[in-house]
Design brief:
Blueprint lengths: L20 E4 L20 E4 L12 H7 L6 H16 L4 H4 L6 E8 L5 E8 L8 E6 L9 H11 L2 E6 L17 H16 L9 E6 L1 H12 L6 E5 L13 H13 L4 E2 L5 H5 L3 H17 L9 E2 H6 L5
Parallel strand pairs: 5-6, 5-7, 7-8
Antiparallel strand pairs: 1-2, 3-4, 4-6, 9-10
Length: 322
């Protein structure tokens, strides 16, 4: 079994009817001294269950096999992206159907100061159109810089702006364990390091510079701006994660447990048992449509969105990112 397989801890009374492998750990050694009371060996049980995604409707067996790849590491995420690149452009969505043509794009990798290979991309206006300003994008937790933002970046570039984006380590096509954020400030450091190089480009000299953040990327953008307020001419926030609402946070007791687990086993994954579509859509037909579309997005985003996976250390650090 691969190390990245999600682990679920269950008590004996809540064993799942699905296939599982019980592992017992009996006490093997008696205490090295005599006592008046003799304790019986305790037995704890750990249930390990490997989840297999249901096939995505409308895809070939080959593409389904690729979509089911272990996405923990960059080389498999890059394989998924390459396999679904053409399908992404054919999605029935305004961002892809109405994307302007003639935009100059460039993709490249560069190794940051922490030794991780980072995926970068740029969108530039058509030749002959003067550049008004540069826009640097920070994506959210369940996103990358090459899916929905692809259409948005083309629209912004068509208006005369140069657009730049990067995948954080552990996201999209960048190196790192998938979705794992050991420390939130590391994201801020990576963004500052990369966009400092971008802002120093000769073709952008003297032009206004804006940082654009969406969802968790909004929190990253805010912290970037707080660190270097004089290096940006403006900040654009789309649904920024300034704070997690208290009514959706776990109880204080659960947060304390998660904080402890984040130190003991920071790369373990939290799994949402209920399908996200079940929470937001009442009509079965719409729920099925959204579920199938979400599965396709999940494959293209290199992210198990339907299972809504978070590393424990990330979950604990996000509420306290400021």
């Amino acid at each position: 079994m691969e190390l990245s397989v999600p682990f679920r801890f269950r008590s004996r009374n809540l064993l799942s009817p699905s296939t599982h492998i019980p592992i017992t750990y009996p006490s093997k050694h008696q205490p090295p001294f005599l006592t008046k009371f003799v304790n019986k060996p305790k037995i704890s049980k750990l249930t390990v269950r490997a989840q297999r995604r249901a096939p995505i409707e409308g895809l070939s067996d080959e593409l389904n096999a690729i979509a089911r790849c272990n996405l923990d590491f960059a080389y498999t995420r890059r394989r998924v992206r390459a396999a679904f690149a053409d399908m992404q452009q054919q999605l029935d969505h305004c961002l892809f159907k109405n994307a302007p043509a003639g935009i100059r794009t460039e993709e490249w990798y560069e190794r940051n100061s922490r030794g991780l290979e980072i995926f970068c991309k740029s969108w530039m206006p058509k030749p002959g159109i003067p550049i008004k300003a540069s826009v640097c994008f920070c994506h959210g937790y369940g996103d990358t810089c090459t899916f929905f933002f692809e259409g948005i970046a083309r629209i912004i570039a068509a208006s005369g702006y140069s657009v730049f984006a990067m995948d954080y380590p552990g996201f999209g096509l960048s190196e790192g364990l998938h979705g794992y954020i050991p420390k939130f400030d590391y994201l801020v450091d990576d963004v500052i390091e990369h966009y400092t190089k971008i802002k120093a480009r000769p073709d952008l000299s003297g032009l206004p510079r804006f940082i654009l953040g969406q969802s968790m990327g909004g929190a990253v953008s805010l912290k970037v701006h707080l660190r270097e307020p004089n290096n940006w001419d403006g900040m654009i926030l789309v649904a920024p994660m300034c704070k997690i609402a208290e009514d959706v946070l776990p109880s204080d007791a659960v947060l304390k447990v998660l904080t402890l687990l984040s130190k003991v086993m920071p790369k373990a994954k939290l799994i949402q048992n209920q399908d996200i579509a079940d929470l937001f859509f009442r009509e079965p037909s719409k729920r099925k449509l959204v579920g199938n579309f979400a599965s396709l997005i999940m494959a293209c985003l290199y992210n198990e969105m339907n299972n809504h996976l978070f590393s424990i250390s990330c979950f604990v650090s996000l509420p306290n990112c400021f």
